[in-house]
Amino acid sequence: MPELPEVEIISSGLRKYIVNRKILDVKIFNYKLRRNINDSFINDVKNTTIKSIKRRAKYIIIELSNGKSILCHLGMTGQLTLNENLDENNLKKHTHVIIKLDSHMSIIYNDVRRFGLMISLDSRDVDNHDLISHIGIEPLSDEFNGEVLFKLLSNKTGNIKAALLNQKIVCGIGNIYACEALFYANISPLRKANSLSSKEADFLAKHTKRILKESIEAGGSTLRDYVQSDGSMGGFQNNFAVYGRAGEKCIVCDDVIKNIKQGGRSTFYCSKCQK
Predict the structure, then answer these.
(1) Is 84 a catalytic residue?
(2) Which residues in the chain land under pLDDT 50?
């Protein structure tokens, strides 16, 4: 958390208000994140203009006018919000970076557990950066479909849930949406990835896209720390079919939703509906 829909929503929220704004000042209160903020960050970012904001997997990429970009990942508890007329005497405890703009707005990076990151780099190097270069296909792209997914899974002998979370195969889906997509596709998370038929792969690809899009429309899923760029919470958590519903009745049948551990992550599923 946040997963692809939440990062897409944050990117869109930032894009709406800060593209073409000039960065007047940068303050860093803590350089030690999952990957330390680079020493050149302030010089790279200050006095530039924000040209564009895009998402790649769960990364936010802010392109600047001087050929540099800011690469940001929110980890488990990161928040990237906008604040108008910021009062620096009333900051949250875990505020690590403030980027002040010429519109009286500030971009605030807050991260309780510090598993996220914020670095600057040459824009031309973003796609080849070690954090980005290995990332697989975007599930919301036109290129992602059942045929492509079937081919990607054809030599994967691990379980299908792990395959959906593997960023080298399909990027950004995350634990919540993997559980939900598998439920609606009637596929057990215990199945081997390469056991899926082409029809099942097509069904799974379609439901993955649908659920991700519906979450984006609902503002994402707020379980603990996620908020949109304006600080408001998401609402898709109210639509979960299986995630977080262990012990409750399935919305389709009378069976009880189960919770197991796979790769250290909680998996929620209906053993009657999902085969």
Answers:
(1) no
(2) none
The catalytically annotated residue of 55, 56, 58, 258 is 58
pLDDT at 90: 85
Report helix, strand or coil for 99. strand
Whole-angstrom Cα distance, residue 168 to residue 244? 26
Q: Three-state DSSP class for 262? A: strand
Q: Which residues lie below 8 Å from residue 207, measured CB to CB, with a gap of 6+?
A: 181, 184, 185
The pLDDT value given to residue 223: 84
Structure tokens at 171: 């990027």
Instruction: Find where tokens 């203009």 sit.
Output: 49
- What beta strand segments (E) does the chain contain? 23-28, 50-56, 59-64, 68-73, 78-84, 95-101, 105-111, 117-122, 258-262, 265-269
* pLDDT for residue 224: 76
DSSP track, 122-149: EGGGTTTSTTTTT--B-TTSTT-SHHHH
- Alpha-carbon distance of 134 to 129, in angstroms, equals 9
- Concerning whether 54 is annotated as a catalytic residue, the answer is no
Amino acid at 18: I
Question: Which is the catalytic residue, given 21, 22, 213, 265?
Answer: 265
- Predicted TM-score of the model (pTM): 0.94
Give the Å distances, CA to CA, from 237 to 132, 180, 209.
Answer: 28, 11, 17
Using CA atoms, how far apart are residues 45 and 23, in angstroms rounded to an integer? Answer: 7
Q: Is 265 a catalytic residue?
A: yes
pLDDT at residue 254, rounded to an integer = 87
